[in-house]
Write a structure and sequence with these properties.
0% strand; 81% helix; 150 residues; elongated; mainly alpha
């Protein structure tokens, strides 16, 4: 009888631990989604102000035309929105691949990815979902035909 009680107690503790871990992960994902939504809002606000757009676009676009900075912010907002959808499961990998191919089909989209891919890859760290997101875009870039890439 004591063995049965110990097994039931161990099973109960295991269930509670699994529940705590699951809740913690859900909380992290909710926070990540909130941060990504805020980032998109900031990018939208910056796109409406030429000086803020150049500042938000970063040092690689210092001295650029306001229109170029706004395009950069548009692409960044689009990527961030897709990342958010990917994180919450609203995009499948084939859908993400289609978005990546469409973005990278144009010269400006490729230029944006080349400018930001290193920073995005560095931010991915050990986050498997984010590494997969970056890998899908890298794969789409690699599969472009040479004629398409010029």
């Amino acid at each position: 009888m004591p063995i049965l009680f110990a097994l039931l107690l161990a099973a109960g503790v295991a269930v509670l631990l699994m529940h705590v871990v699951q809740r913690r992960e859900q909380h992290r994902e909710t926070l990540r989604a909130t941060v990504l939504q805020a980032q998109v809002e900031l990018l939208k606000a910056a796109a409406g102000d030429p000086d803020l757009a150049r500042t938000a676009a970063g040092p690689q676009l210092t001295g650029s035309e306001p229109a170029e900075a706004r395009r950069h912010l548009f692409f960044e907002a689009q990527l961030t929105a897709w990342e958010l959808q990917w994180r919450v499961g609203a995009l499948s990998q084939p859908q993400l691949r289609a978005h990546a191919s469409a973005l990278l089909a144009g010269e400006e989209g490729r230029r944006h990815w080349e400018r930001t891919r290193t920073a995005r890859a560095a931010l991915a760290g050990d986050d498997e979902k984010l590494r997969t997101f970056t890998r899908v875009f890298d794969d789409a870039r690699q599969t472009l035909k040479p004629a398409d890439a010029h």
